[in-house]
Amino acid sequence: MSLQLSVRDVTKRFKTGEGVTGISLDVTKGELVTLLGPSGCGKTTVLRSIGGFLKPDSGDILIEGRSVVALPPEKRPTSMVFQSYNLWPHMTVYENLAFGLKIRKLPKAQIREAVADALRLVQLPNSEKKLPGQLSGGQQQRVALARSLLLKPAVLLLDEPFSALDAKLRQEMREELREIQTQTGLTMVFVTHDQEEALALSDRIVVMNHGHIEQAAAPRHIYDRPSTLFVARFIGKMNFLEGVVEGSGIRVGPFVLPNEDRIEGETLVGVRPEDVILKAAEAGEGMKGLIKQIMVLGHYAEISVELEGGGTVRSFQPKDAVRELTAGQQVAVAFTKSIAYPKIGDN
């Protein structure tokens, strides 16, 4: 696949001390890449730098092989979808969508056809005559998305576009955006702080923290093999157990785990709750503990176990599998997968 976007060693610092330092990122044509991280991590700074709304202190940004770092937003082959819909309230849906095309002096018949096609793509056919105030929040966001699609950008930028919507509508919009991306083959860079959104939407996730990239990889790899302790803590839920290097392995309670990364000294071993196995205390080897709490969360249950040696481990189990378990019951804890990190720098 050809390279559509290249961010090269971009640095942008603010007086507050926040910003980004030395960010480099390549996005291939047709790829949907999500910038994910906590507030203040720099993800929006990167997005706005790509769109031309911020000028980097140093570095370069190339789109389709051409540097755009000196160009204003309106001269870049990008389009931005914001969290706020930015629709003209006194204009109809058609007028809002046609505005940018009229500036480009396209023929009226071509504009009508393009607007109708865009509205069909976002599942709002025959809504041209409505005013934004007559639409729901989700419908207004669809119109805002259609407006950006009409410009046929080389890279579509999306700045937390669904964060103002309720959970059910947010999920629907995610599915629709992914379908639109599949149909159009557009290259998209999406910003969110919502992990579920990032995992569901993305071809690749870029996890950011304190102005730098912690890890960039496919969603499954980010979840299964977080490369840093920050990513392990940030993505999903993770149990952490203290371990000590022993020979060629890492000892955690009665278990000696493989030390694949050759970590030295004290370690933290991460285990996803779905990889925690609970057995009857007398059933065999394991870390002994008492069930502290059982919470049924729809189709699964989250069980908190207080370990004899200290600390708490959480386990996800099918809801039908916990009928025989009760708070205060003694169990043996084991796990099917784990990943270790040096304890140094644990914060």
TrEMBL record:
Entry GO terms, CC: ATP-binding cassette (ABC) transporter complex
EC number from the UniProt entry: 7.6.2.9
Record-annotated ABC transporter domain positions: 5-235
Gene Ontology terms for molecular function: ABC-type quaternary ammonium compound transporting activity; ATP binding; ATP hydrolysis activity
Domain of life where this protein originates: Bacteria
One of the Pfam families matching this protein, by short name: TOBE_2
Keywords: ATP-binding, Nucleotide-binding, Transport
UniProt xrefs under SUPFAM superfamilies: MOP-like (SSF50331), P-loop containing nucleoside triphosphate hydrolases (SSF52540)
InterPro entries per UniProt: AAA+_ATPase, ABC_SmlMolc_Importer, ABC_transporter-like_ATP-bd, ABC_transporter-like_CS, Mo/tungstate-bd_C_term_dom, NA-bd_OB-fold, P-loop_NTPase, Transp-assoc_OB_typ2
Catalytic activity: a quaternary ammonium(out) + ATP + H2O = a quaternary ammonium(in) + ADP + phosphate + H(+)
PANTHER family with a match to the protein in the record: SPERMIDINE/PUTRESCINE IMPORT ATP-BINDING PROTEIN POTA, SPERMIDINE_PUTRESCINE IMPORT ATP-BINDING PROTEIN POTA
Quaternary structure and interacting proteins, as annotated: The complex is composed of two ATP-binding proteins (OpuCA), two transmembrane proteins (OpuCB and OpuCD) and a solute-binding protein (OpuCC).
Name recorded for this polypeptide: Carnitine transport ATP-binding protein OpuCA
